[in-house]
Amino acid sequence: MGTISKSRELTAEEINAFGAELDALRKEVMASLGKKEADYIYGVRNFVRYSEIASRSALMFLGWLPPVWLGATALLGVSKIVENMELGHNVMHGQYDWMNDASLRGNSYEWDTVCTADNWRHTHNYMHHTYTNVREVDHDIGYGVLRIFGEQKWEPRFLANPIMATMLAVTFEWTLALQSLELEKVISGEKTWAEVRQQFKPIAAKMRKQFTKDYIFFPLIAGPMFLPVLAGNFVANLIRNFWTFAIIFCGHFTEDAETFDKSVLENETRGQWYLRQLRGSSNLKGGKIFNLLTGNLSHQIEHHMFPDVPGVRYADMAVKVQEIAARYGQHYNTGSFTKQFSTVVGRIFKYALPFKVKAEAKPMAVPSATVVPLATPKMNEGIAA
Hints:
One of its GO terms (biological process) is lipid metabolic process. This is Linoleoyl-CoA desaturase. GO terms for molecular function: oxidoreductase activity, acting on paired donors, with oxidation of a pair of donors resulting in the reduction of molecular oxygen to two molecules of water. Keywords: Membrane, Transmembrane, Transmembrane helix. The protein starts with 11 loop residues before the first helix and ends in a 5-residue tail after the last helix. It has one domain. It has a two-stranded parallel sheet. The chain has helices at about 10-30, 35-60, 65-90, 115-130, 160-170, 170-180, 185-190, 195-220, 225-250, 270-280, 290-295, 300-305, 315-325, 335-350, 375-380; strands at about 285, 335. It is built from 15 helices and 2 strands. Helices cover about 55% and strands about 0% of the residues. By secondary structure, it is mostly helical. The chain is globular.
């Protein structure tokens, strides 16, 4: 069975009004950005730097002590999570371009993970954020290896859904790095291995750099602490991989998340684009520390609507977005991490089997006047608009 929308269908006028209210909210927030947000992102960057120094130093000098090893490994895992999710991911969206700090420019920042920043800016910032949950266009729907919506065509390979999902969670930074290759197109004959080899060159260079850093350089300079440092780096990366996998999947693939036929892109207006972000996204409930550790993707709805707004503002914006959604009869998908993740796991197991689609989300009404969506390629590539 496909996803049945819990949202009321809107008229053309209501869709335009809905979009106008969200545009006004974004404009209001962007006009208020200043020292508070700048201090926040600098504080996040300092945390990443000092937590990495502290954790790596502890592993190098006292890693033979089990309590120190556990604490240092956990801290290194947290440092990697915050660098990837709250610093790198958000900076690369251009959320801090207004500061005119060259080290925080969205189109030049390189993060501390295997996936190259340039590939991420294309596959994530542009393709995913522009075409969120549009089947056959948004490659993030199942990442080419999973069936997690009833609207996806079933193939025998999806019987391995639970195994593939587990492998994806364990190797998340490495498999995301390969996403831009779209290897399934080689199987279908849409691209050649020669094209894959050419596209793989920058990915291979980044893989070598990250592997050398965590599994050769730091263990070697640790001398007698080689094994504790090697093991600590490996486990810290696992912590980051599992957490990132869980948060991203909770933001996109929960029970109430909807997917859309690519026909919705025809003359899609700004209001319709906002509705698609709302209906295809899921939020998580939590406090400030939880929000930090998720890169504020605990507010995935707001992030999909306003990808270039600093994530630290999403919690406040969420209150207003939820109020606007309620007035227009739109379902606001939010819940605890436990609740949302359990529905993700349920989807992974359910759609491993050939369940047929009995109903799916109805198409949104088409207003007569076309408005350019907020998520333009220029903005999503991390270039200042």
